[in-house]
Each structure stands twice: as C-alpha cells, then as structure tokens.
Amino acid sequence: MFSYWEQQSFFIYDHIIVGSGITGLSTAIELKAAYPADRILVLERGLIPAGASTRNAGFACMGSVTELLADLETTKERNVVRLFARRKAGLQLLRKRLGDERIGYAENGSYELIDKTAKNALNKIDWLNELLLPVNNKPSFRLANEKINEFGFNKNRTEALIENTCEGELHTGKMMRALVDYALQQGIEIKTGAQVLRYDEGSKSVTVMVHNTLSKDNYLLRCRTLVICTNAFAPELMKAVDVVPGRGQVLVTRPVRGLKFRGIFHMDEGYYYFREVDGRVLIGGGRNTDFEGEKTTAMVVTEAIQSALEDKLTNIVLPGVKYKVDMRWAGIMAFGKNKKPIIKAFSNRVFGAFRMGGMGVALGSEVARLLSELHRERAAD
Ligand SMILES: Cc1cc2nc3c(=O)[nH]c(=O)nc-3n(C[C@H](O)[C@H](O)[C@H](O)COP(=O)(O)OP(=O)(O)OC[C@H]3O[C@@H](n4cnc5c(N)ncnc54)[C@H](O)[C@@H]3O)c2cc1C
C-alpha cells in the first residue's frame, strides 16, 4: 500500500538504469549529461555494486600479445583493432572523468610472461605493433627480457618478457567509489538493495517491478526508458541474449617482504594475471582449467582454481619466496560467441549495454558513451 505522494514523487522517472557497476553508473552519467533536466535512477540489487566492477584486478588494460593473437585466430583483424581502440577510448574517458589520483591510476609497467609453449608469439610482435599503430601511434609491445631476473621470476618457466607500453593499473575500490560519488554529484539517484524482478513495456512507458531485498516488499516504478547494464546477469531479465557467465577467482597475499616487482602482468593468453598492490601480490584467473565449471554466477571460490593460482605463484612468480594468502574472492564476468560487448536498442524504450568480458574496466566508459549515443537516436518521448 503506497501513498499518493509516494507514487507521484518517488515512483516515476525519465530513465531507469539497472546495475550499478562501471557500465551502469557510466551510462547514468552519460544520460544525465545528454538530458540534464531528466530524472535518472540507478537500481542495484546489492548493498554495494555486487557484480564484477568491485571484484576485479584493476588492470587498466587493452590486451596482451598472446591474447590478441588468440583473438585474431577467430575474429577479423578490423574487429580486433576496433575493440582494442574502444578499450583505449574507455580508459581515456574514465581517467578524464574521475582524475588519475581519485582512481589510483599509475603506470608502473605492464608485461606478459612468455613460456615455452607461447614462444611463437615473439615472432609476431612487429606485425602486431604495425596493426595497432593507428590506435597507439607508437609500438605497443617490445621485448624486456632483461627484467626477468630483476623481477625474480622463475627463469625456467619464463622464456621471455614482453612489455606493453600503453597500459596502467588502478585501485578498483577507489575507482568505483569515485564513480558513485561523481554520479551522485550529477544529481543521479542510486537505490541499493533494489533488485529488478521484471519489466513490462507499454506504449507510453516501462513498468519496472523492484524487490526491496531488506523489507521484501515489491514496488512498481515507471520510466520512459529502461537501460539494462547487468552484465553476466542480463539473461535473468532478458531472454535469448547471448551472455554466458564466467567466474573469475582471485587471491591476495599478505605484504611480501622485499617484493621485487611492481606493475601488472599477463600470462597464458590473459587467462592468468598478477600485480603488485600495496606490497602484496594479487593473482587471478585459471578459468581455462575448468571452463564448464566456471560458467556460473555463484560467487564462491573453489579449491581447484585456487590451488592453480597458488601453483603459478609458488613456481613462477615468487620462486623460493615465502608468502601467506590473506584473502580470496570471486566475481562474475560475461562472455558470448565473440568479445564484442552488446550495445543495443531492444525497442525505443528498452536498451542494454552488457557482456563486457574480461576488460570492462577499460571498456565500460566507452560502451556507456556509445549506448548514450544510440539512446539519443532511438529513445521515445
Ligand atoms: C576476478 C575478476 C578480475 C577482473 N579483472 C579485470 C581487470 O583487471 N581489468 C578489466 O578491465 N576487467 C577486469 N574484469 C572484468 C570487469 O570487472 C568487468 O568487465 C566489468 O566490471 C563489468 O562491469 P559491468 O558494470 O558491466 O558489470 P558488473 O560490475 O557485473 O555490474 C552489474 C551490476 O548489476 C547488478 N544487478 C544484476 N542483476 C540485477 C537486478 N536484477 N537488479 C538490480 N541490479 C542487478 C549487479 O549486482 C552488479 O552490481 C575482471 C572481472 C573479474 C570477475
């Protein structure tokens, strides 16, 4: 039972965005800039953003040599380059919008460890640099083998080290905190503990059924347009979308005395990654050891993947170094038949931007910008 006043002033919006990850918040910000007088609401089912955006590794990255080469085996060159360019544009937009200091952005180096099985990739660095030159205006990759020793990696398992000249790292928590604050400053409303159960599209508006996860009440909100930014969870609201969840698992060590490296590191076509953070090592990945098992939205860690991560840490990254694991967690990514994000007008009232893969930190802001362009072209009054 709701009052007349509640229904008049709290239940009607111009645009509702579902999901307060990097894509949802950036989309809300873009729409507010496009329609300053409009009332914009973001609905988030978690008490805080509860998808991948607060659980990732904070790589401000665009792709490693072996990952890009693997993509080129299944995807046309121009599409791989376009996606690379979108990641770059997204990072630039994020940094410009929030400022490097607020998001903890730093360029402490980005590298890829190459083992025996990936040695062929070394012959293709020049070719890849040429392909990406129009995006970066400088060679994106160069060999940095002299640093293998300096960083203390296991030389028997590291044949080469490729430096990526255009990537950085950020503090994921600070970035998302800054994005929430920025959205609030722009006059965007955010409601947490608000799970969208379903929506019904009418000729003049969209009705959105929202479940208050605390009180367990359901509310019916109304908006002119609805934008779904729920990434891996998009199929819960929209049937027949090509989105497959992919769990990502991570662990963080306690501070490691005398840690020899800083920066971000890729391995095995991007399936493993590690970085220094506050003197600790964060390592994640391993989804490729159990693709089927990791196609899940269950946010839990598993023994198999966690021990694969510890194996890499002990035998390649920190050989002979004592470390203790401090934290472990999981987050859910979204994949599909290809790596292209879905940015779509499902009608002139319902829009979606999701399926951000493993590089949504880089892509999120640009995807939101493109979605907002599409919204301006297609949205009904
Ligand atoms: C372990 C891990 C490491 C990663 N590392 C990196 C990295 O280093 N660099 C990088 O670029 N990318 C990385 N990624 C990928 C990146 O985090 C994602 O691509 C990006 O965060 C996706 O953002 P999003 O806003 O689209 O989705 P999400 O952050 O998942 O946001 C979707 C939101 O929708 C909410 N939601 C879902 N359903 C509903 C509903 N029905 N009602 C209301 N709210 C709902 C969820 O709670 C969630 O907050 C990593 C991901 C993981 C899991």
Would you list the SSEs in sequence order as H and E?
HEHEEHHHEHEHEEHEEEEEEEEHEEEH
CATH second-level architecture of the domain at 4-54 and 174-242 and 338-378: 3-Layer(bba) Sandwich
Instruction: Report the uncertain regions.
Output: none
Query: Which oligomeric form is depicted?
Result: single chain
Instruction: Give a quick account of the main beta sheet: strands, pairing sense, barrel closure.
Output: 8 strands, mixed
Helical fraction equals 25-40%
List the ions, cofactors and other small molecules found in this model: flavin-adenine dinucleotide
- Span from first to last CA? 29 Å
Number of helices: 10
Number of strands: 18
Q: By helix and strand content, what is the structural category?
A: alpha/beta
Do you know the CATH topology of the domain at 4-54 and 174-242 and 338-378?
Answer: FAD/NAD(P)-binding domain
Q: Specify Rg, calculated over alpha carbons.
A: 21 Å
Mean pLDDT: 97
User: How would you name the CATH homologous superfamily of the domain at 4-54 and 174-242 and 338-378?
Assistant: FAD/NAD(P)-binding domain
